[in-house]
Design brief:
By secondary structure, the protein is α+β, with helices and mostly antiparallel strands. The chain contains 2 helices and 3 strands. The chain has a 3-stranded antiparallel sheet, with no helix packed on it. The longest helix is centred in the middle third of the chain and has 9 residues. It is globular, with a radius of gyration of 11 Å. 17% of the residues are buried.
């Protein structure tokens, strides 16, 4: 199955709680931290919600 690498590019300061929790659920806690995920609809939905803060790339 395909994988996606998600990298936190911007800070979550000033964001609403649901956005902060989504970033944390993706396993990102510091700027420029990365995590690899299986390409599933659930992960795609989380990335879509926080797309203004993260960079996603296919592996």
């Amino acid at each position: 199955m395909a994988k996606i690498r998600v990298t936190l590019e911007k800070s979550t300061i000033g964001e609403v709680i649901s956005v902060k929790e989504t970033v944390r659920a993706l396993g990102l806690n510091k700027i420029r931290s990365s995590k690899e995920w299986e390409d599933t609809p659930a992960v795609r939905g989380m990335i879509k919600k926080v797309r203004h803060l993260v960079k996603a790339e296919n592996i």
